Amino acid sequence: MSGNFVSARADRRPDAGRAAMRRLRARFFPILLLVLTPALLPAAERAYSRLDGSAIPIADVDATVERLMASAEVPGVALALFDDGKVVHSRGYGFRNQDQQLPVTEDTVFGGASFTKVAFAYLVMKLVDARVIDLDQPLETYLPRPLPSYSRYADLAEDARYRKLTARILLSHTGGFANFRRFEPDGKLRIHFEPGSRFAYSGEGLQLLQFVIETKTGRDLQDLMHAEVFVPLGMRRTSMVTEARVADDLASGHDNWGRNIGAQNRRAADAAGSMQVSLRDYATFLGAVMQGRGLSPAARRTMLEPQIRIHSKGQFPSLREDTTTANDAIRLSYGLGWGLYWTPYGKVWFKEGNDNGFRHYSVALEDTGHAMVIMTNSANGEGIYKALLETVLGNRFTPIEWEGFTPWEELPPRGPAPPLRPYQ
Question: What is the pTM of this model?
Answer without folding.
Answer: 0.90
